[in-house]
Amino acid sequence: MHYVSTRGRAEALDFEGATLAGLASDGGLYLPERWPHFSAEDFAAMRGLSYVETAVRVIKPFVGDNLTEGELRDLCTQAYGRFAHAAVTPLVQLDHTHWLLELFHGPTLAFKDVALQLLGLLFETFLSRRDTHITIVGATSGDTGSAAIDAVAGRANIDIFMLHPAGRVSDVQRRQMTTVLAPNVHNIAVEGSFDDAQALVKRMFNDADFSTRFDLSAVNSINWARLVAQIVYYVYAGVRLGAPERPVAFAVPTGNFGDVFAGYVASRMGLPIERLIVATNVNDILHRALAEGDYSQGTVIPTATPSMDIQVSSNFERLLFDLGGRDGTALAAQMAGFEATRAMRLTNAQREGAAALFGSARIDADEMARAMRWAYDAAGQVIDPHTAVGLAAARAAGVDPSVPVVTLATAHAAKFRDAVERSTGVRPSLPSRTGDLFGREERFVTLPATFEAVTDYIAGRATPRRG
């Protein structure tokens, strides 16, 4: 299996190469040159399998010869052995139609753990073969940072520099990053929005002077290996709710489009998905793009769902590439236009292709709060604000009642205690496995959102490229 760039000019890489590179050298994102396809019999055979065994079957076609089945099984066993629930991503029924897929049983209480626990082990495995060092640079709107740091803290041959928007993540999210004092972990609070932080990271990869000084890699969902791991829970949930004989719909609280794109890949692989419901908050660039073809950047509005306070969704490029006939030259021109003007119209092919599978909804603060109260009053479930955005969109989607609708529960409610308490009157407690999070020392630096300030800080602490 080889991987090609959405912008058509970078060298094709194998799974190991794409994992370590993160972003393609031409500024594009890696995708497999073809989608693996599973038959109805393949999906039916996954019923009753453990999460680890499901992961092995789903991921193996993507890794090619880079890992044997035994090596992949060992990595998955290690990655998911740290989760607090034996099912890893259990389903919870809300009513006759709606379900929650709980993705927050990992060490940092968010769905990012499902991918990043595995990605950290993949990095370690591939780096040991090459005897090299990588410098991970990433931007986080809250959950990616803590999950990535937990996955690589203390690992040999890796330094991680994580940028988060100062004052725009919850206190739990911040402390899960800044109380990790391993010498290879560096937290940077950027005086700006997540989009500012993400733009800085992309510029680092594309700046020839900076990127050639260090072996840069990414843990954001621009890294293909992250999305591969996320495909698994769509399959795991689907087969438990009747697939392949019965289709399933999924509602996904969405910011950077990585989580919902994994669902798109599951569909391309043959999983019968009736609908992928893209749920945004008032930072609704993805809703406007899918509903009207208008992908234009607005001003980020801070909300109670900070992981979705995004106006540039990096992974949307992957969808546009696949729906646009995989024409890298055309997509590169389209993205260059967006980067210059911060506005773009989807082509007819892109709009029509998306409409065949995707729906979308813009959920405001009142609708979010009502969904939180409904989940608590009707089903006794305390959910976080991001999950509530997804649930509100799911309940408004008008999916055929015979089709189960699964909302991805992306974070533990205790990560957003104040917002949950305002809506439900219940103040959720952190699980005991988080320990004395609020008693630990924090360590981070606050920098202006300028390329010079951030790269000077990283250059003074990162390990230069060898040779």
Keywords, separated by commas or semicolons:
16 strands, globular, 467 residues, 6-stranded mixed sheet, Rossmann fold, alpha/beta, 5-stranded parallel sheet
Poorly predicted regions are none
Ends: how far apart? 29 Å
**How many β-strands, per DSSP?**
16
Please describe the biggest sheet, giving its number of strands, its sense, and whether it closes into a barrel.
6 strands, mixed
How does the helix and strand content classify structurally?
A: alpha/beta
Reported CATH architecture of the domain at 86-107 and 224-424? 3-Layer(aba) Sandwich
- Helix share bin: 40-55%
> What is the gyration radius calculated from CA atoms?
20 Å
As laid out across the biggest beta sheet, the strand order is 4-5-15-10-11-14
The level 1 CATH classification of the domain at 86-107 and 224-424 is: Alpha Beta
Q: What percentage of the residues does DSSP assign to strands (E)?
A: 15-25%
Mean pLDDT: 95
Shape verdict: globular
CATH topology of the domain at 86-107 and 224-424: Rossmann fold
Number of helices: 19
Structure, described:
43% of the residues lie in helices and 16% in strands. By secondary structure, it is α/β, with parallel strands linked by helices. The protein has a domain at 86-107 and 224-424: Rossmann fold, CATH 3.40.50. It has a 6-stranded mixed sheet with strand order 4-5-15-10-11-14, with helices on both faces. A 5-stranded parallel sheet has the order 9-6-7-8-16, with helices on both faces. A 3-stranded antiparallel sheet has the order 2-1-3.
